[in-house]
Amino acid sequence: MVRKSLAVLAAFGLLAQDAAFARQVPADAGNRVQISWDELANFVVEQRVSFTLPDRARLEGEVLAVRPDSLVLDVQKARHTKAYPRGQTEVPRSSITDIQVIRHQSSAGRIVGGILGAIGGFFATGGLAVATDSAAAILPGLLLILPASAVAGYYAGKLADRRVTHLAIRGGTSAPGTEEE
Residues 6 or more apart from 90 whose CB is under 8 A from it? Predict the structure, then answer.
């Protein structure tokens, strides 16, 4: 009984490790750029962006245009959906100080991550069957552990493909037409 419990614990440990790896965000401090509002359009138009407003609402979507007094955004995700419903909205210039530009490089990380996750799940299933000395552990392992590991590998690869550039806007709170110091 103890041996079976240890085997199950080891299998779930492997799954937890895969899930923890999938949650890690690659830290890249070199991707922080300071720009003025006038330069913003060159970086964000037709790009997926994310930013937090002063009322702590977080918006994510595609930038449609940058105007002198606002940013036109096609909202796809919002923390406060009643205040910021999905669709086109204008965000005032004074409420934007930092923007994260989100790009996905390729699908290679998702493909490789899914394959490696499936291979890891296959070996975890085999290890579970060997540790429990039971062929009956193979079927639940193939139905539960293998797909869960493949999904965790996919999401780990998705994060590996993701590149985020942080844009700090100089003079983000100044009104249009005023000079910066």
Answer: 67, 70, 71, 72, 73
Per the CB < 8 A criterion, the answer to whether 100 and 167 are in contact is yes
Mean pLDDT score of the chain:
78
pTM, 2 dp: 0.58
Nearest 10 degrees: CA dihedral of 7, 8, 13, 18?
110
What letter represents residue 176's amino acid? P
Q: What residues does 72 pair with on adjacent strands?
A: 65, 90
What are the chain's domains? 2-26+106-161 (no CATH), 30-96 (2.30.30)
Higher pLDDT, 9 or 53: 53
pLDDT, one tens digit per residue, over 20-38 is 555 444 444 457 888 888 8
Secondary structure class of 65 (helix, strand, coil): strand
Place of tokens 């009643």: 82
Is the CB of residue 169 less than 8 Å from the CB of residue 100? Answer: no
